[in-house]
Amino acid sequence: MGAAMEMTQELIHELRELVAALDSRAPQVLRAGEAAIAREAVALRARAVERIEQLEREAAAPRGR
What interhelical angle do 3-24 and 34-60 show, nearest 10? Predict the structure, then answer.
């Protein structure tokens, strides 16, 4: 596996950790601004999942040279 592929796999791993952390977060309903924090967490999770899917597609694509 090349250095670029290793970096991609590490990024995918870190993004999956981020998604897991966001999934395990319990909203603090009494905290000021929690609704905005929760919305931003949902949006961040969606972007992380999209990026994981993109990286996995790129990693699976045949390398033509």
Answer: 150
The C-alpha atoms of residue 37 and residue 5 are separated, in whole angstroms, by 33
Q: Give this prediction's pTM.
A: 0.84
- Flag whether pLDDT at 63 surpasses 80: no
Pull the structure tokens for residue 55: 């990286």
Widest Cα–Cα separation across the chain: 57
CA distance to 26, 33, 60, per residue, from 37 (Å): 11, 6, 34
CA atoms within 13 A on the CB side of 64: 1
Report the alpha-carbon distance of residue 17 to residue 19 in Å, rounded: 5
